[in-house]
Amino acid sequence: MGDDLQKLFTIGQCDNASLNLEWGQRLVPYLESALTHAGTYSSDEIQGHVKFFLDHIAPYLSHDGQTGYGPQYPSSMTNDQTPFELSLCWKSLKQDYKPIIRFITDIIPSNAENTRTASLSQSINLIGTLDRVSKESCAPTVHVLPELWRQISEVFLRHEVDVHPSGEECPRCGPSSTFVGFDLKASVISSKLYWLLPSCQSTEKALALLDTVFASCARLHNFFGSPIFLSSWGQICTHMQSNPDVLQPRMLSVDATSFPAPRIKIYTRCLFNEKKSFDEWEQHLNLDGAISYSHDFRTTACNLWTSLATNPEGWKQSRPKAGPKYCLVLYELTASSHSASTTTERYDLKSKLSSKLYIMCQEIPRKDSIIAKELLRHCQLAAKADILRTLADASAPTNFISEIGLAPREQGTEMSVYLNPSFFSRSTWEVAEDDYMTKCRITLPS
Question: Does pTM surpass 0.90?
């Protein structure tokens, strides 16, 4: 295992030297090691990406007066309240099994106020920072959609007055409201904003909130009011309204990865009752047949899901309720990439309404080595990825893999692995004799 890979799995262990490090200092070696491991970024490009993170994003990860080691903000980003995830993505065989590096972070209020209102307000400050950085004539280029993002955060802020009128912390929602993510290309950083929908609201009310958001966006960008967008969004709404006990809208994302056109993504939790086989819930992935995808994608998704969601035979008696309670389905509507962001252009969908599957590995009670072996076995675009081989060969039980994303491509199935540095949960990692791994959620004392 190379030194860069070794660092990925050892950085973040609690030692005396790291007790008082701020988030930026703690995470920079982790991000730098991932970029080095990818083998596709020059040293100047790596330093440019690291400097961008340290100068412009890390300041939004700590609140004023934060001291000591340990979670101090109830972040919804990860199960152990580490407000950062690394993402490695394999989109095509042209990558030669070398991943594209991405990361996503929480946005933490500087005053340490634990409310959605405070974090939404802080998101507007971050949007201003990204807008300013994108206009600077320096490498790397940063792609942003600040007007749309600011408009959406403001709609969510106004909505908070109705959904949380007391202004106090909501035990079901938590204070995290907005995440920010970045795809790190050689000389371009593509930005993404994510808004968590209030967990305390029903599917019907969550869809009504999204209706309000999209109507507001239509005043800035014609695509949101175009017949093709409204038709596709209507299909999604109808399906969710028909399955309110199964489908829960959880998050909205508008990103600049198809800059200057926006990509609009709705993340939906798909709950299981007793049955969790792929055939039982595929109707939600393909929207009752409205979404088509390749045979390769269906086969990959079905086989990987089955391999991870099916419990060992011995658990039927000893652990009958073990296994995932839900997965995440993403529905995407994206404007054509050649369209400029003006109110005088006509906008079309880049492609037909599409979907993506997220396997939530915190719901899978298996250690990383078992999960990685199944990824190597079923995901052809990452079948020789060094980082997966390293995880598969590990002797000690680890729980870095938090999610797996699968998306259909013209050739093969795109696969993304999301890694939680797990700064605060490593001491809880243990595996029972029957290979069952308990994956604890770390909470702050009330």
Answer: yes
